[in-house]
Amino acid sequence: MIHEKTRAAVKPPASIAAQAMPATACAAARRASEGAAAPATAATPATSARTVRGRLESGGMSSATHHGVPSGFAPWPRSSPPTSTIWLVSPHAINQRDDGKLCEELGDVLLQVVLHAQLANEEGRFDIQDVVSQQCEKLVRRHPHVFGDLRVADSAEVLRNWERIKAEENNHTVSESVMDGVISSLPALAFALEVSKRAVKVGFEWPDLQGVLEKFREEQEELAEAIAHGDRERIEAEVGDLLFTLVNIARHLKVDAEQALHAMVRRFIRRFEQMEELARAHGRRLEELSLEEWDKLWEQAKRNATGAG
Question: pTM of the predicted model, to two decimals?
């Protein structure tokens, strides 16, 4: 049975969310990703801000972005595909391209926003309109190349401007570290990638892929040495170094390490299930198989799965 306070918190946000987050959000995201870094001509920031706020009142943030943001809005949709935010929703929704599941998962994320806003509203702190309004104002403020007359050469300049404006917002002081604000609750591989990208921004980078591969071999040797000495603490540290280096190899090769590992694990599951079926077909239990029999089943499962990933 739903508690009365919970019922009161749940029902109103549904209508609020419908007003504040219309279906044009998908179109907004699509348009924002088109021609991501192209310089844009727009009205003055003040005029654009008023326009966005006006559209906010009549249709919400997604309406404002859909109608008011030309291509060139943000550089990250193309450089960082949707899979970079996979940690926010169920991996199955994205990995299996299950639109129904993805829609449901995004709804779960949205519900969290709406519920928190409603609870804050009941305490007289802020409401959903404040949340959306602040986001619209931030979009305008941090994208002068879209809402103002600023010209930019490429996505790198857009990001530099974004970092500068963000620093000015935070008491007009530049962050003491490029690592400030990194979300430590990200999945480990995504966390490692974000940290790596930030280090690269200030020049901490290998000259080429060969340099990273050499570092990987160096880390392999250090792990072998730690294993030989039986030092558990060092072994753990060296495994971490090895994984971090692998993330950097993936970055150099423009491979999403998180997605690559998810794909590999899915392949492993499919092949293992194949082995189970093959063993059952021969009246054998997996626990009874010898190492040689395991290898044969694995190779057969790989052949059967050829073309299926």
Answer: 0.58
Q: Which CATH class is domain 188-255?
A: mainly alpha
The domains of the chain are located at: 4-169, 188-255, 258-304
- Residue 110 C-alpha from the chain's centroid: 16
* CA 142 – CA 103 distance, rounded (Å): 28
146/150 Cα distance (integer angstroms): 8
Residue 300 and residue 273 in contact, taking contact as beta carbons nearer than 8 Å: no
Amino acid type, 43: A
For CA atoms 43, 49, 51, 56, the dihedral sign is positive
Encode pLDDT of 273-307 as tens digits.
Answer: 999 999 999 899 888 999 999 999 999 998 887 74
The token pair that represents 214 in the structure block? 């050499």
Comparing C-alpha atoms, which of 145, 3, 129 is closest to residue 72?
Answer: 145
Tokens of 18: 């419908």
- Counting as low any pLDDT under 50, the low residues of the chain are 1-47, 56-58, 60-72, 76-84, 307-309
**What secondary structure letter does DSSP report for 256?**
-
